[in-house]
Amino acid sequence: MHTWLNTANIRLSFTLVTGLVSLLCIGTASAQDDAITYNSHVAKILNENCVVCHREGGIGPMQLTNFEQVRPWAPLIQYKVANREMPPYAYDHGIGLQNLTGDWRLEQAEIDTVVAWVNQGSPLGDVDVVPPPANLPDPNAWTFAAELGAPSLIIPSVAIDIPANGNDLWSKHYVETGLTQDRCIKAAQVKPRGDARAVVHHANTDILVPDENGDYEAYGYLTEYAMGKWGELMPDGVCRTLPKDARVHWDIHMFPGGVGPSANGTMIEDNVVELAIWFHDEDFIEQSKPYKQDLRAYLMREGYENNFLVIPPNGYTMTQGFHSFDHPVRIDSYQPHGHLRMNAASLEIFYPETGRTTQISQVSNWSATWHHSHIYSPDEAPLVPAGAVLVIKQWYDNTADNPNNPDPDQWVFDGSRTGDEMSHAWIAVTHLDDAGYETMAAERKTKEDRAVAGN
Question: What is the C-alpha to C-alpha distance for residues 274 and 151, in angstroms, rounded to an integer?
């Protein structure tokens, strides 16, 4: 439940909440009528979804680990939860696919419970009821360690000094992997060490492999990191390959002083960004015959002015891109990317044979401080026939209405600096053959028929 509000904004929010709380209270009638208490109902929701950031040493601006800490913030918590601003996961409900891996959004019943609790005066409840404790992972632990164990390989960047202020910085360098055979990646996570989370804007890794002459040539992207990102999981039956003898190229963009509420404005010395990789077993390729998966930045050019993104002062713009394949594919994940003026994005598929367009994902109220790779359930990940077209759209708001906008009076251009803008989406694609596509489609049809029969 991370919030960008500073102290002045929090005071203003309390005033607004007091006047508007009746309009924001959207709890169900049954929730309104029942006694909702912190000990019996609300503590569990906060402990499971909020305390991970709102604790001592966490990135949240206040602690929410017990009733005494929570009670003064109850109206603000209600406001943020009712408007789905917290937890910070900007993925629209009711539009496109909703079954996602690593989804931070609260269930509607949880939102109704918090809203009803505040409406009833935020009572503590029975003092003999002890709320379940928060399961707080080590903030320096790897996301997938609890499920997958220790990483198979950790690839660190070189150490970088990041000053307290100044212009954008980039570090681009190579690191050897030491692999002696091709390996298939099960999961990957990039993480800046220590206090550098707010100053590392992105940290991308691509792969180079030696040719027959020993010269290195581009192979493709390994993974992508942007501020707030959780990590990447690969579905069963696919292989995102890290080849033998590969060299990893780090491309790290840093913003001195930091961006967002966790920025501390101090110098960070000898910061290292690390990439953790979990591999499948060594014989996975031979035994599973997996399909190839890759990750790419799909660019958008429609809507550019002379092939150049321009957003006028106090204005808006929209970009879109179109991509198709000469073979069937499955879309495994979708992550839009922009900077401080971008505020929404969507992914659609156009089917030329029928003339129909299906919306897959919509991301509104987007923020550059929280990037998410929206990983689709393998049973629902879009199967795209050859010739169908991915339609990728992004919107930009360069006005004072955009709370992330540092200066609406500036012209904003396409570029790599934090104050510039970008327009692309990172999409993980599994490349299929006709037989694989037909098999997957038939399996889904069978499951759908069984579900209908069961209902």
Answer: 11
In this predicted structure, what is the pLDDT of residue 230? Answer: 84
Q: Which fold has domain 291-439?
A: Jelly Rolls (2.60.120)
Domain 145-288 top-level CATH class = mainly beta
Max CA-CA distance within the chain?
A: 76
pLDDT digits (tens, 9 = 90+) for 353-379: 999 999 999 999 898 888 899 999 988
Which tens digits make up the pLDDT trace of 89-146? Answer: 889 998 999 999 888 999 999 999 999 999 999 999 998 988 888 878 777 789 899 8
**Strand, helix or coil for residue 437:** helix
Q: 273-319 pLDDT, tens per residue?
A: 999 999 999 999 888 889 999 999 998 876 666 567 899 999 999 99
* Alpha-carbon span 414 to 300, nearest angstrom: 11
Measure the CA–CA gap between 368 and 354, rounded to whole angstroms. Answer: 36
3 has pLDDT over 90: no
Closest CA to 331 of 144, 104, 89, 97: 97
Q: Identify the burial level of 189 via C-beta atoms within 10 angstroms of its C-beta, where 0-12 means exposed, 13-18 middle and 19 or more buried.
A: buried
The residue ranking higher by pLDDT, 355 or 34, is 355
Q: What angle do CA 174, 335, 254 make, to 5 degrees?
A: 45
Q: What is the mean pLDDT of residues 31-59?
A: 84
Q: Could you state, in order of their start, the residue ranges of all structural domains in the chain?
A: 7-119, 145-288, 291-439
- Any long-range contacts for 206-209 (C-beta under 8 Å, 24+ apart)? 206/248, 206/249, 206/251, 207/242, 207/243, 207/246, 207/247, 207/248, 207/249, 208/174, 208/246, 208/247, 208/248, 208/249, 209/243, 209/245, 209/246, 209/247
Q: Are 290 and 164 in contact (CB under 8 A)?
A: no
Dist CA 369 CA 260 (whole Å):
6
180 pLDDT higher than 90: yes
Assess contact for 35 and 121: CB atoms under 8 A. no
Tally Cβ neighbours within 10 Å of residue 194. Answer: 13
Taking Cα atoms as reference points, which of 72, 73, 76, 101 lies closest to residue 89?
Answer: 101
- The answer to whether the CB of 283 falls within 8 A of the CB of 172 is no
- List CB contacts of 218: < 8 A, sequence separation 6 or more: 206, 207, 208
| C-alpha distance from residue 49 to each of 2, 44, 325, 391, 407 (Å) | 10, 9, 39, 33, 33
* Residue keyed to tokens 């990483």: 151
Q: What is the pLDDT of residue 439?
A: 93
Between CA 48 and CA 258 the distance in angstroms is 28
What is the number of residues in the chain? Answer: 455
